[in-house]
Amino acid sequence: MLTKVIEQAKIDRFARWMGHAERIVIVAHVAPDGDAIGSSLGLWHFLNSQEKTANVIVPNAFPDFLRWMPGSKDVLLYDRYKEFADKLIAEAEIICCLDFNALSRIDAMADAIKAAKGKKILIDHHLYPEEFCDITISHPTISSTSELVFRLICRMGYFNEITKQGAECIYTGMMTDTGGFTYNSNNREIYFIISELLSKGIDKDDIYRKVYNTYSESRLRLMGYVLSQMRVYPDYHAALISLTKNEQGRFNYIRGDSEGFVNIPLSIKDVVFSCFLREDTEKPMIKVSLRSVGTFPCNQLAAEFFNGGGHLNASGGEFYGTMDEAKRVLERALEKFKPLLNAKG
Ligand code: 5GP
Ligand code: MN
């Protein structure tokens, strides 16, 4: 049995809305990851089973390694089909906001979602949700939004309606947001849920292979190059990797090629904090990705130094300036956070 994590009143209210609604839009965050797409498609498959007209809309493209997911071809990209997406958003009776806590996380879609007349529900696990929805289901202690979607569907009494395809999507989100169940994954109920998803016929080993072991040769060579340039700061238990636009060009970089790189330095003994700085190819900025193990709060560092935020162990931000400036800011941040970086635990 699962603990009743989501408040009953919120489940009842959403179930009532659903009973009366035909057109439902599901929205997830910019640069969607496995949990954004997994939770959205997990909910989408369920709504389809209820004969609703549901559409998943995300701000921009998602990585190739998620394209095998059942339903991914029907995900609408806002930056390519804005007019059609705006119409769907305006006409939706319910808008489900998944895996983000603030309108700024959906970039150019924010205005349309804010202005939409439909009832809005947030289902998310990031800290400090903004109040922009009628129902806010926010549980930062739950490791993925996909898990919350599973819990919501079950609590509404529809476990039997979850299809194999829906289960594959939910599993993918749970797996990717925990690094293949290697962090944020000590809650034993996760494994109860996995057992339930396996009962739907999913092949979890095959999903792992499709997500993590289908990269291109150039991605692997890029990884080798990035690691050869890595800087380790032993006195701070930290490591830094970076990628300029020029370097991306040399390795035929395509979007998603550096996915997961930021985690690799954490495999060094005694490194508890990793930073990845990547020059963006679209916006004039450096995308900052931060990861930690243990108690080091990378979200605090992201907020104070890189205009960002996120989870304790996985966060990010943006930096407007040169790569050298970004590195200097990081080094200042390391100095400021030195006591926490050296704390045991
Ligand atoms: P990633 O490193 O995978 O891009 O991001 C990891 C996590 O950091 C995301 O799930 C999100 O919670 C947070 N994050 C990433 N970029 C930003 C940002 O620019 N602003 C904020 N507030 N959070 C971010
Ligand atoms: Mn997530």
From TrEMBL:
Matches recorded under Gene3D superfamilies: 3.10.310.30, inorganic pyrophosphatase (n-terminal core)
Pfam families attached to this UniProt entry: DHH, DHHA1
Taxonomy, superkingdom: Bacteria
Annotated GO MF terms: nucleic acid binding
Domain (DDH) ranges: 23-174
Location of the DHHA1 domain: 251-335
Name assigned to this protein: Phosphoesterase RecJ domain-containing protein
Organism: Bacteroides stercorirosoris
